[in-house]
Amino acid sequence: MTTAAPVSIAASVPGSAPIFFVVPVIPDDGSVENVFYYAQAGSDQYWEKISPKDLDARRDGGDANGVMLFQPDIEAILQHTHLTGDRLDRSVTLYAGVARTLSVSADPLPSACLFDANRFMVIPVVPHTTRGVILVFSKQSTGKSPTPVFELIATTDPEIKNGVGK
Question: Highest taxon of the source (predicted)?
Answer without folding.
Answer: Bacteria
